[in-house]
Amino acid sequence: MKETRVVPATDETIEEAARLLREGEAVAFPTETVYGLGANALDAVAVARIFEIKERPLFDPLIVHISGEEMVGEVVREVPDLARTLMARFWPGPLTLVLPKGERVPGIVTAGLPTVGVRMPAHPVARRLIEKAEVPIAAPSANRFGSLSPTRAGHVAGQLGGRVALVLDGGACEVGVESTVVRVEGGQVRVLRPGGVPVEALEEAVGRGAVVVGGPEREGAQEAPGMLPWHYAPSVPVVVLEGGAMPGAEEAREAGLLAFRGAPEEPAFRAVEVLSPRGDLQEAAAGLFEGLHRLEEAGVARIYAEAVPEVGLGRAVMDRLRKAAKRRPS
Ligand code: TXA
Ligand code: MG
């Protein structure tokens, strides 16, 4: 087991992290969505380390991160016009495009799929790191598989401490939920995972008729293999409160409440986290995992999470909450 160093992201530490990446090591770094655990996407052995560190099943493909459009050609076989439109509009930013895989990308990155997920992050630390590493970086979220996603360097150290040599600290992630994952095929944009780019923004960019959300039903690993029904789960049970439901006083006493705009006076919860007093869904998304981490740390027996409106970033928030509420099979 190695010691984990959490260091502020500076020119020197980014340079060091880039060197580690080139040498085949995995390092954790901030992006605008969540912290990533990166390795050289063209090095199968380095990528295997990611799966080992996260205890992630090999059927779950990784997203490849690039620093500039000139890198797209290194990982993707062809870029349809519709994908170009999305890149021009949303990159750098929280949009992952699933496209035909290039030959140099090892199968372990894509879980054997003929497609690869690619994204150009907007976070300056992520961009500089990839630029200096001079290779595309495969990076899932820097947490244990299935657990809460990390939006601060401390979250990474808490889950992966002793397993990763270096964590670049870039402060709190601004978007706070993972990228929107879309597959571009036959003139359509299919949303496989709601995330930091709202569906409405995609519709505005390419036309309503061209955007499809979810489905068709899973063809083995084909759809969004990471999207197991349980995911993003804290260590205690989560219950989503829909339609203004509230637990009784007895249940609330040992429980935590993840409230949207504010907590009710009754019942009294052991701990409360409010996502956005002004009801702003962007703010709610940004604080979602942070709030769940804090309730988990408060030692509550269970977390009740208030439903938020399912529009804009609210869609990504509800996707994460519903998955957190599913218990993982043990
Ligand atoms: O915001 C993000 O996307 C963050 C940061 C670090 O960039 N990364 C992230 O990675 O959320 P991860 O591994 O936690 O989720 C990646 C998901 C996979 O679970 C899968 O659902 C989807 O992206 N994905 C990746 N490649 C795919 C492919 N070829 N086909 C379908 N889905 C794919
Ligand atoms: Mg993840």
Automatic annotation (TrEMBL):
YrdC-like domain span: 11-197
Tell me which domain of life the UniProt entry assigns to the organism this sequence originates from.
Bacteria
One matching Pfam family is Sua5_C
Which reaction equations make up its catalytic activity?
L-threonine + hydrogencarbonate + ATP = L-threonylcarbamoyladenylate + diphosphate + H2O
Q: Which PROSITE patterns match?
A: YRDC (PS51163)
Which residues of this UniProt protein bind ATP?
A: 56, 115, 141, 149, 193, 232
Q: Spell out the InterPro entries in the cross-references.
A: DHBP_synth_RibB-like_a/b_dom (IPR017945), Sua5-like_dom (IPR006070), Sua5/YwlC_C (IPR038385), Sua5_C (IPR005145), T(6)A37_SUA5 (IPR010923), TC-AMP_synthase_SUA5 (IPR050156)
Give Gene Ontology CC terms: cytoplasm
Q: From its record, what is one biological process in GO terms?
A: tRNA processing
* Entry's EC annotation: 2.7.7.87
Q: What does this protein do?
A: Required for the formation of a threonylcarbamoyl group on adenosine at position 37 (t(6)A37) in tRNAs that read codons beginning with adenine.
Tell me which NCBIfam families the record gives: L-threonylcarbamoyladenylate synthase
Assigned protein family = Belongs to the SUA5 family.
By what name is this protein known?
Answer: Threonylcarbamoyl-AMP synthase
